[in-house]
Design a protein that fits this description.
22% of the residues lie in helices and 29% in strands. With 194 residues, it is α/β, with parallel strands linked by helices. The strands form 2 sheets. An 8-stranded mixed β-sheet has the order 5-4-3-6-1-7-10-9. A two-stranded antiparallel ribbon has the order 2-8. β3, α3 and β4 form a beta-alpha-beta unit.
Length: 194
């Protein structure tokens, strides 16, 4: 059974973006050491344009071969002309009720029962499924998430888009990994206790 992993970048105080969702300010904390870790451990999570620039175009996926993201997460790339930001994945899904048709042939839209769709994806053979974002989608899929990989950057935002918009509910996690970097970034991995 495939796992759904919420692999996300956040500030120390738990925000994945500004109040409008823009997370570009976090790029300032992606230094060479941290980028090297991402390339070595999560090469498929680098979007197609970045992969080409870094010489990773032919690097196979290591952990994930499917990605699911909300429309607001997908939209900045779409506005920049990237209709298929993760074309190197076997499957790309965008959750949207407002898009009438997929902007690229290899992008599939989901608008119905999102949790049921994800359960169906998890039952298929393959590598893991990356929940790319955002907060509303993470809330809708809270009971389907199997693990969290949180990239915490050394910055406090004060307010913004939270990691999840789930209402209060305790979900126990088991720490499975923690790596700290010289630039103050920390990557923590947790498995959901069931």
């Amino acid at each position: 059974m495939r796992k759904l992993t919420y692999f996300i970048a956040t500030t120390v105080d738990g925000f994945i973006g500004a109040p409008d969702g823009d997370a570009d300010f976090m790029y300032a904390y992606v230094d060479q050491e941290f980028l090297g870790h991402l390339i070595a451990e999560y090469p498929e999570t680098i979007a197609a344009a970045g992969r080409a620039h870094l010489g990773l175009a032919d690097v196979p996926p290591k952990r994930f071969d499917a990605v699911i993201m909300g429309r607001r997460t997908y939209e900045p790339g779409l506005k920049a002309g990237m209709t298929s930001p993760y074309g190197h994945f076997r499957e790309q899904y965008v959750v949207s009720r407002s898009l009438a048709e997929a902007p690229a042939p290899d992008v599939r839209l989901i608008s119905g029962d999102i949790a049921a769709e994800v359960r169906e994806l998890k039952a298929r053979d393959g590598l893991g499924i990356w929940l790319c974002g955002g907060a509303d989608l993470a809330a809708q899929l809270a009971d389907e998430i199997d693990e969290y990989v949180v990239k915490t950057y050394p910055v406090v935002a004060g307010t913004g888009m939270p990691m999840s918009r789930t209402g209060f509910g305790v979900r126990e996690l088991e720490l499975t990994g923690c790596t700290a970097f010289g630039g103050g970034q920390v990557v923590t991995a947790y498995t959901v206790k069931r």
